[in-house]
Specification:
- The chain is of the alpha/beta class.
- It folds into 2 domains: 25-70 and 159-319, Rossmann fold, CATH 3.40.50; 75-145, no CATH class.
- It has helices spanning 2-20, 31-44, 75-87, 98-104, 108-113, 115-127, 132-145, 161-172, 185-196, 235-243, 259-266, 301-309, 316-319; strands spanning 58-61, 176-184, 203-206, 210-215, 218-223, 250-253, 274-279, 312-315.
- The strands form 2 sheets. The protein has a 6-stranded parallel sheet with strand order 3-2-1-6-7-8, with helices on both faces. A two-stranded antiparallel sheet has the order 4-5.
- Strand 2, helix 9 and strand 3 form a beta-alpha-beta unit.
- The protein is globular.
């Protein structure tokens, strides 16, 4: 009897250790998780024809809606709105600007209806005519002092736990992880390393040209809106080629705006690639949408293309044990 009890204890202990050591513990053991693990095993096993050499293991991730939420607004747009409110008292000349009036009156419908033109106006007011160092500090201050209105967590605490685990898992298996997003490159670089372990040089996003000048104290780069490049849809493969210089072997997104990046990756002629789309289906723990997103992240064509291409579609409600890490996303009263 004692031997049986000892054996049972050892087995249960081993099972518990194995579960605790699961690098993808925030994922349920469904087909989505299995497809990830199988592809990684095939790509890293030198005895298989699907082996990918370490120097070719470049993988790309969209950010908004893939690594953190983009509903009800993208975090960067919320930052721009909060910055307009903070800076407005110093700029009385803004008072007659309709988009500023909408922001100050919390009229988000008008802000959203202004589309790309309105967004560019907000970005010009809050993202230009300042040094790159000042902009970085403004983003860091905002991240450290503002919280999401619904969840009450700081924005840098709201990375999806399953995707953060996936980033770690891929890196542990020799993959180099990149962000390729429509979000601003300077905005994301402030927080990407802390949140995702992705260094600034592996962040690709929308950008405009800065101006270099000599100053009494040395040199400076000043942000402008010149030469603006919006890194979305067909522009993503262009940016990947420009910044990475090689075609990825895996791509992870959540919207039709990521399809060109995923198609470009899937067409890699040398290796068996992997594609994954995050489908927002969990209204209780996050948001539920596809064809009618709150602001951005429409996913219609991608769902049908995933079947055709054999991409993995992650059902957030069914495939994830957790959405946000309960240890890091600790709700408090929003500080706005």
């Amino acid at each position: 009897m004692k031997h049986k009890l000892l054996l049972t204890t050892l087995i249960l202990g081993a099972m518990g250790t194995a579960h605790a050591a699961d690098p993808l513990s925030a994922w349920k053991d469904t087909a989505a998780k299995q497809s990830i693990e199988q592809w990684v095993q095939n790509a890293t096993n030198q005895d298989r024809s699907t082996y990918i050499p370490p120097q070719k293991r470049y993988v790309v991730f969209d950010n908004d809606g893939t690594l953190w939420p983009e509903a009800p607004l993208t975090f960067q747009l919320q930052f721009a709105i909060d910055e307009v409110k903070r800076l407005a008292p110093e700029h009385p000349e803004w008072k007659n600007d309709p988009i500023v009036s909408a922001v100050l009156n919390n009229d988000l419908k008008t802000v959203a209806a202004a589309g790309e033109k309105g967004l560019m106006q907000l970005l010009e007011l809050t993202h230009s005519n300042i040094t790159t160092e000042e902009f970085d500090q403004r983003v860091a201050n905002w991240v450290g002092s503002h919280r999401d209105n619904r969840f009450g967590c700081r924005y840098d605490q709201m990375g999806y736990q399953p995707m953060r685990q996936l980033l770690d898992y891929l890196r542990e298996n020799g993959f180099k992880t990149w962000i390729v997003s429509g979000g601003g490159i300077d905005f994301m670089r402030v927080i990407a390393e802390k949140m995702y372990g992705i260094p600034p040089e592996q962040v690709i996003g929308s950008f405009s040209l800065s101006e270099f000048s000599l100053t009494d104290n040395g040199t400076q780069l000043r942000k402008t809106m010149k030469g603006a490049f919006y890194d979305d849809a067909a522009a993503k493969p262009v940016a990947i080629h420009l910044f990475m210089g090689q075609r990825p072997v895996a791509a992870f997104g959540n919207s039709d705006g990521d399809l060109a990046m995923m198609q470009y990756t899937a067409a890699n002629p040398d290796y068996k690639t992997f594609g994954l789309l995050v489908h927002h289906t969990d209204a209780e723990r996050e948001y539920a949408y596809d064809s009618h997103p709150p602001a951005s992240g429409k996913l219609v064509e991608g769902l049908s293309m995933a079947k055709e291409k054999g991409w993995t579609v992650v059902d957030m409600k069914q495939d994830w044990r957790t959405v946000f890490d309960p240890k890091s996303c600790v709700p408090e009263s929003p500080k706005q």
